[in-house]
């Protein structure tokens, strides 16, 4: 009998399971918004790729060589400052070293707004090539800064930046508006934009000025923006927008509005369902027996 | 004239002792399976009572059967469009609580319990969830008036009774109830067939047995809603609806259905009726008080040459017609007119008929005196209608005629009284013959009031009290091979041991 009833239990829970999976699938993109700690997906790197382009694709989104600190530290002189072995271990798996409590790694993490360096999924050969490349850069003449972020200029216009973000104004070179993929607080609407990319609320705190060079440097965004670069003026406007207080934190009012609307919507659906099926037979014996007591 | 054959039933309620042997016989054969534990294709109810599922007779709630709409028949449940709209959310289903949650006991614990100071117990375990459960109701929860202040008091048939009549039923020393065994009525105008969106429910052409094709059933459960007798049940394990099949495999091998054969009180009769299918719609659409008469009228005399010719023209075999001529059901229903359909006002034309119970007055308190009321023939005053004192008047019947009329004649008290006059006539006549404490004049008057002859009274007595097995069960030659031939070579069918093409029902989960 035990097997029989457990089988029955299993069957009964199937619809619930099914709904749970559906709900999880529906919610997954939203949960991902906050998951900045999640390591990037490892991807294939061709061994034939030379170190310079490897640096360009893998590192330049956060690092410069002699161009100043971005999201991550400036790597000029890093081969001299750090033990070669340490460097190799670090590039292969930064989260592991942070988890191990490596003192240098912990310090760097604290220095850079607690934005951890992701594991890039590089092979040992790639890492070796990268270190050689860094050594060459340090040994050679001071290289020109690669993809230096726009200097924090004060001349950007917040309003113009907002229009660029929402698509009210178009980018000069035809780049898609940020809102197509990203949401951000302070531009109205219920969630402020698309769900494909992460939410950009408070992104300035995390990435600093690099937030506007990200489209050119990050692996996922680069293919879209490679032919549709942002002009310096646009970058300045966007930067001003991202620095403005309205997008550095979500207003509590909006959150409460969202919550309230959700509750209201659920109640409305419940009411409609109840109205349509209000004459549904919901039990004969229970009310009959209940009347007695 | 479109003559068809119907295997019909008569239950003689006077003889039912409420032992539930029929229910158990049926359960052991057909519904002792996962998903069918709660199904009682045969069940026995105490009346007055709410029955199983609870208050199944209350069609304001369950929406079963048909109703008259401008003289035309309409399913009470819904029309075709509403069926489509409610396909995925059938709103008129009884809940599991209205049946009951089936359970077993954890017997194994009696053997495996650790040694202790107390006796080990076998707790109730739900057969559906497998969890421990509190038993709150069962299929015969109100058996013998159990919980009567709740259950019996809510019997929908008590609605039209006066307060005095209601009190009288439960008056001390006069308290009265009887048993009502129920199986599928195999109706001529079945609600389940009318409501099935998949065409799975059907009425078998050659014998009128109503079945649900397990291959075609798509679990919409409209049959459960539309049957006013709540006899189709949904099997939650196979995801198909099931119902009483009148033990057709037994019938096809010449045996009566299991509940018939096992009946301790021998209350059950089975035989073929010939009816005119052309008249079904008209007969099911008449006014309430004419329903019993209309249903009797469409049943045809199997000895009428015209009927025989029409039956033959319809392909009914001579053997079937001869079986219809010997049918005990025909005698009870048509010849003697003492068997009545249950709730004809549901307009499904049920083909299971009941001989109502006598429930004679045994004693009553009169003028402060407790008197044995005419039981020994001394109290003539009770028989105010001039009947012999033995059974007193119908007005003094322990169960009001209005109650019985609500059950068996759609409220037509005249119809039910006519039946009782006959039943009383038989008793008084036989009392004169055997006990000899009734005068010939009194007996003649009783027969005259009933409008019956002494021969008829004796025939009723004989088939009621002294029938042989073969007289009770006129199982017709089902000639299954003729039906088989239309689908499959009989030789091949035989090699398949009679199972036919079996496609196991399957759940999609």
Topology:
The complex is a heterodimer of chains A (293) and B (509).
Chain A: H1 2-33, H2 51-58, H3 78-81, H4 84-92, H5 94-99, H6 103-111, H7 124-139, H8 158-166, H9 203-207, H10 214-217, H11 222-225, H12 232-243, H13 245-248, H14 252-276, H15 285-290
Chain B: E1 3-12, H1 21-30, E2 43-47, H2 59-62, E3 66-69, E4 72-75, H3 80-85, H4 96-99, E5 103-105, H5 109-112, E6 124-126, H6 163-169, E7 178-182, H7 191-195, E8 201-203, E9 210-212, H8 222-226, E10 233-235, E11 240-242, H9 248-252, H10 258-262, E12 268-276, H11 280-284, H12 291-298, E13 299-300, H13 305-313, H14 318-325, H15 328-335, E14 340-341, E15 352-355, E16 363-366, E17 369-372, H16 401-408, H17 413-434, H18 440-450, H19 454-465, H20 469-472, H21 480-485, H22 490-495
Parallel strand pairs in B: 1-15
Antiparallel strand pairs in B: 1-12, 2-7, 3-4, 5-6, 8-9, 10-11, 12-13, 14-15, 16-17
Helix pairs in contact in B: 16-17, 17-18, 17-19
Features:
A: mainly alpha; Cytochrome Bc1 Complex, Chain D, domain 2; 3 domains; 15 helices; disordered N terminus; B: 509 residues; Alpha-Beta Plaits; two-stranded antiparallel sheet; 22 helices
Structure report:
The complex is a heterodimer of chains A (293) and B (509). Chain A is 52% helix and 0% strand. With 293 residues, chain A is mostly helical. Chain B is an alpha+beta fold and 509 residues long. Among the domains of chain B are: 194 residues, Alpha-Beta Plaits, CATH 3.30.70; 113 residues, no CATH class; 26 residues, no CATH class. Chain B contains 22 helices and 17 strands. In chain B, the strands form seven sheets. Chain B has a five-stranded mixed sheet, with helices on both faces. In chain B, strands 2-7 form a two-stranded antiparallel sheet. In chain B, a hairpin with a 2-residue loop joins strand 3 and strand 4. Chain B starts with a strand and ends in a 14-residue tail after the last helix. About 4% of the residues of chain B have low confidence. Classes of the chains: A mainly alpha (293), B alpha+beta (509). At the A-B interface, helix 1 and helix 15 of A face loops of B.
